[in-house]
Amino acid sequence: MSPSRPFILRPVATSLLMAAILLVGIVSYTQLPISALPQVDYPTIQVLTFYPGASPQVMARTVTAPLERQFGQMQGLSQMTSSSSGATSVVVLQFNLNLNLDVAEEEVQAAFPRLRSTARPTPQMRRC
Question: Is residue 33 in some structural domain?
């Protein structure tokens, strides 16, 4: 006797068994916890720079690029994004989870005096 014989002889029971397995699978899937990607707030600092009257190209060349070079050397930096527009520049620094945000903030503030010789405007910093 083959293992498939009872399923062939009883097609209605086979269909009901498959429907029950499918229903249990759907219910089980909806009950799974979603903890593979937990909600995490990465330490983030946003540096805003205002330079009245400057074009986006001037902001990118004289303000944003020196900021990126200086901040790119910081320990624990995982991601840096920047944008330059007319008279403003925004640099967003995202750090590793194990880095204390207070330490990162002190490093960013320590970088400002070194930048004043190349970038004329005074940057402002905000914790996110």
Answer: no
Number of domains in the chain: 1
Give residue 2's pLDDT.
87
Contact 93, 80 (CB under 8 A): yes
Domain harbouring 95, CATH code: 3.30.70.1430
Query: What is the extent of the structural domain holding 109?
Result: 44-127
For residue 54 the two structure tokens come to 């400057």
Q: Tell me: pLDDT of 16 over 80.
A: yes
